Amino acid sequence: MASRVVADEHDSRRGDAPAASGGPLRRSATALARVAVPLAAGGSQLRLLVSLSLPFLALAVQSLLWRLVPSTWFLFFYPAIFFAAALAGLRAGLTSTALSAVLVWWFFVPPAQQLVKHTPAMLVPMSVFIGMGVAFSVFHERLRRAERDVAAATRDLATSLVEQAPDGILIADDAGRLTEANPAACHMLGYSRGELLGLTLLELLHTDDSDRIEDLWGLSGALESSVRRKDGTELPVEIRATRLTNGRWQAFVRDVSARRRVEEALRERQSDLDRAQSVAGVGSWQLDLRRDEVHWSDECYRLFGVPHGTSLTYGGFLDLLHPDDRADVDRAWRGALAGAPFDVEHRIVVAGEVKWIRERAEVDFDGAGLPLRGIGTMQDITLRKRADEALRRAHDVERRLRAELEDLTRAAAAVSEAVADLPRSDLATVLQVIARQAQTLTDARYVGLGIGTDPAVPFDPWIALGMPEEVARQIPRNPRPVGLLGVVARDNRIIRTRDLRRHAAFGGFPPGHPDMRSFLGVPIRFHGRPVGNFFLADKIGADEFSVQDQRLIELLAARAGAAIEIATRYVGEAFQRAWLQAVIDQLPEGVIVVDSESTIVLRNRVAAALARRSGLVGHPEDRLYDVREPSGAPVPFDRTPANRALRGETLVGVEYVIVGPDGRALPVLVSATPLVTVGEPAGAAIVFQDITALKELERLREEWTSVVAHDLRQPVAVIELAVEGLLRGLPDAAPERARRGLERIKTASRRLGRMIDDLLDASRIESRRLTVQPRRVDLAALAAGAVEQARETLPGAPIRVVAEGPQPAWVDPDRIQQVLDNLLSNAVKYGEPGREVRVDVGPRDDAVELVVTNHGAGIAPDQQRSLFCRFARTREAREGPVPGLGLGLYISRGIVEAHGGRMWVESTPGATTSFHCLLPRGPAPD
């Protein structure tokens, strides 16, 4: 419309200043008006001539018809004046009025063709005629002015709309060259108005759309294309072209990029929705109730196997359902139209396959409560239905198996009770219970259970149920594993047959045996080894035993195998246990066997006599026996011989004291060893020997040793005093041989004195009468002093002390000096000559450790255990030139243990030997 306004004629009085102040289209309109003014002037003269000719035309017509319509002077002049004013305006209308009045006055007012009339009455109609002409002229003038005002307002409005339009508006001439463009088009294309004018629309369009735009010029239609912006980018647009009345073209160009993005997003979402529906097996649908039209998504067509795009009605939809489900679905849908929820499951048949579909929908109603449409979904639930059916069958199987399991559990419980009742029951009782349970589980009339595989030996034992006693007495002996029974027993085969008489292995019944038909034979195994056999015959209420019966008996056989094995072994074990008890009761030593919980399971008469109260087997070992250390201190629970053996220790000849029921302390030597099963301790065996007589002999020996040592000390002391007196009184001129002899006597007497002291210390240690007087002592300083003395008595021996500062210890310094003298003497005597002897003193946990190390041949591991015994010497020491009694280390360990410490040796043969003494740390000073 704006283009048409631009193409119209312009009023000359509105084409000046107002137009110049507008935008580009306003300026264009002003220019067009200036061009149109001369053209309009030429047209006005022509219209004036035509309008002035109309009165003469009216004169001609009225002259021709005057005779037919006389006295109608102004009949044809009124239209002439009206059309003249309408055609040429006010001046033409007034001129035509005046000319028409003259022509009428001259030609038609009588007397005709005379200027002066003698009828004054004619002046009135003439005045009316002239007044009507003037009115016609004024009316048309005002009308033309109103049209010009409306046209100008319309042109201004069109120009404003074009300037502010969001779409691009382009005006082109007949050649397609752009002559006008609004701001939106310039902004859209990226050109200024001056750059855009002069271009053709084809230069802006995509090359492939040139033919389409040419067709568009001819059809005045619309198309979607893309235009090239100034920066070279492509912009999707919609173009509508219209031919204007002045021969020009007007094109509306709309940017559709946002719409394209929305459409693309919608297509992607629709694609995602279709894909999601396909993956989930869910389709969506709508039912227009007024038009009876069903609209499906792609997935609905796929689910029903209907070609995509097929038109459907509600009735057509029902025809696609399974015939047995149509009425139910229709009933549910009618309920939904009444306001009920719609949620149904139905079947369809697609390519011969039955599928299950679940449909859910909601119905939209109008304001009057009438249904408008239904919106719903459909889902393929075929897999779920199949799973439900499989689950239902599984539940049926589960219920059947649960019932079987309960029956089997009751049977196994009865068998377990029979086994648990041993030894009050016997093997035959256990077998009787097992056979009874097999009969209960299968409703068998006859049940046999036998043990044995040798075809020459009858089953023993043999349990038979269901056979009357008088019939059983007619059968001379138990059956043997031959024929059909042998196939089960010897070949470990399961046999289930409808008629045992037709089986190839059947060898007939013995005389007096009842007739039997159906048969089920199942071997009983334990860890793959045959331990018995089930033989069942004649199922009550059926012609043969079922697969379920066979499975139940197999399961019972799996459990019965262990029960039979336990019962059989229990009988054999009872005999062996009685034999073992008889043997150990004859032993002079006490014997105790405990389980893994330290509970006594076996003991002999000697062990029973030493219990502090009359306890029976089955009580914990520590409650029946009062075990103490040789010193009389109670043995902690975790240090008892039984618990030590249960931890994996092996005790050989360890001395303890057992307080008997009469309160008398009995010295014993205890040996204990763990009993291991499958790598785990299952118990322990403890043997203890009464050493009262041996202890008495040791006491007498110690007393004799003490007396002898005491009696020898006095003469040795006299000899040593005498020798010292002789040496002091020996004149200087005495022979050197005499002086050396006296020195040898003095050295020998001292050695003999030390030997006597060692014997006394050994006696005190043995009788536990060795006493110490501990006090706070710096063990590092004590060791350094001992080393200085050793350097004087052992010249040339390199000895070094290593200590980390003062090391306070709670010890008797004289006794520890004695230990150091012995260890240093041994280290020098038995070490490599010239090699360093090292003494280390340092802390260790809450004690102080003293270590003496030398280099030499070392001590073999098998000799280290006896190294601290009385009179014990290594093989190398006994065979070597160094004399000794073998009491030094025994006394040293006794002194260390008297302090509450510990002493041990670590030796690497051919390298080093270290003696370790762990002594208590001194208390903090006040």
From TrEMBL:
<keyword id="KW-0902">Two-component regulatory system</keyword>
<dbReference type="GO" id="GO:0006355">
    <property type="term" value="P:regulation of DNA-templated transcription"/>
</dbReference>
<dbReference type="GO" id="GO:0000155">
    <property type="term" value="F:phosphorelay sensor kinase activity"/>
</dbReference>
<dbReference type="Pfam" id="PF00989">
    <property type="entry name" value="PAS"/>
</dbReference>
<dbReference type="InterPro" id="IPR013655">
    <property type="entry name" value="PAS_fold_3"/>
</dbReference>
<dbReference type="InterPro" id="IPR001610">
    <property type="entry name" value="PAC"/>
</dbReference>
<dbReference type="GO" id="GO:0030295">
    <property type="term" value="F:protein kinase activator activity"/>
</dbReference>
<keyword id="KW-0547">Nucleotide-binding</keyword>
<dbReference type="InterPro" id="IPR003018">
    <property type="entry name" value="GAF"/>
</dbReference>
<dbReference type="InterPro" id="IPR035965">
    <property type="entry name" value="PAS-like_dom_sf"/>
</dbReference>
<protein>
    <recommendedName>
        <fullName>histidine kinase</fullName>
        <ecNumber>2.7.13.3</ecNumber>
    </recommendedName>
</protein>
<feature type="transmembrane region" description="Helical">
    <location>
        <begin position="81"/>
        <end position="108"/>
    </location>
</feature>
<dbReference type="Pfam" id="PF13493">
    <property type="entry name" value="DUF4118"/>
</dbReference>
<dbReference type="Pfam" id="PF13185">
    <property type="entry name" value="GAF_2"/>
</dbReference>
<keyword id="KW-0472">Membrane</keyword>
<feature type="domain" description="PAC">
    <location>
        <begin position="340"/>
        <end position="393"/>
    </location>
</feature>
<feature type="transmembrane region" description="Helical">
    <location>
        <begin position="48"/>
        <end position="69"/>
    </location>
</feature>
<dbReference type="InterPro" id="IPR000014">
    <property type="entry name" value="PAS"/>
</dbReference>
<keyword id="KW-0597">Phosphoprotein</keyword>
<keyword id="KW-0175">Coiled coil</keyword>
<dbReference type="InterPro" id="IPR036890">
    <property type="entry name" value="HATPase_C_sf"/>
</dbReference>
<feature type="region of interest" description="Disordered">
    <location>
        <begin position="1"/>
        <end position="24"/>
    </location>
</feature>
<dbReference type="Pfam" id="PF08448">
    <property type="entry name" value="PAS_4"/>
</dbReference>
<dbReference type="InterPro" id="IPR003594">
    <property type="entry name" value="HATPase_dom"/>
</dbReference>
<feature type="coiled-coil region">
    <location>
        <begin position="387"/>
        <end position="418"/>
    </location>
</feature>
<dbReference type="Pfam" id="PF00512">
    <property type="entry name" value="HisKA"/>
</dbReference>
<keyword id="KW-0808">Transferase</keyword>
<dbReference type="InterPro" id="IPR003661">
    <property type="entry name" value="HisK_dim/P_dom"/>
</dbReference>
<dbReference type="InterPro" id="IPR029016">
    <property type="entry name" value="GAF-like_dom_sf"/>
</dbReference>
<dbReference type="GO" id="GO:0007234">
    <property type="term" value="P:osmosensory signaling via phosphorelay pathway"/>
</dbReference>
<feature type="domain" description="Histidine kinase">
    <location>
        <begin position="707"/>
        <end position="923"/>
    </location>
</feature>
<dbReference type="InterPro" id="IPR013656">
    <property type="entry name" value="PAS_4"/>
</dbReference>
<dbReference type="InterPro" id="IPR050351">
    <property type="entry name" value="BphY/WalK/GraS-like"/>
</dbReference>
<dbReference type="GO" id="GO:0005524">
    <property type="term" value="F:ATP binding"/>
</dbReference>
<dbReference type="Pfam" id="PF08447">
    <property type="entry name" value="PAS_3"/>
</dbReference>
<dbReference type="InterPro" id="IPR036097">
    <property type="entry name" value="HisK_dim/P_sf"/>
</dbReference>
<keyword id="KW-0418">Kinase</keyword>
<dbReference type="Pfam" id="PF02518">
    <property type="entry name" value="HATPase_c"/>
</dbReference>
<dbReference type="InterPro" id="IPR000700">
    <property type="entry name" value="PAS-assoc_C"/>
</dbReference>
<dbReference type="GO" id="GO:0000156">
    <property type="term" value="F:phosphorelay response regulator activity"/>
</dbReference>
<keyword id="KW-1133">Transmembrane helix</keyword>
<feature type="compositionally biased region" description="Basic and acidic residues">
    <location>
        <begin position="1"/>
        <end position="16"/>
    </location>
</feature>
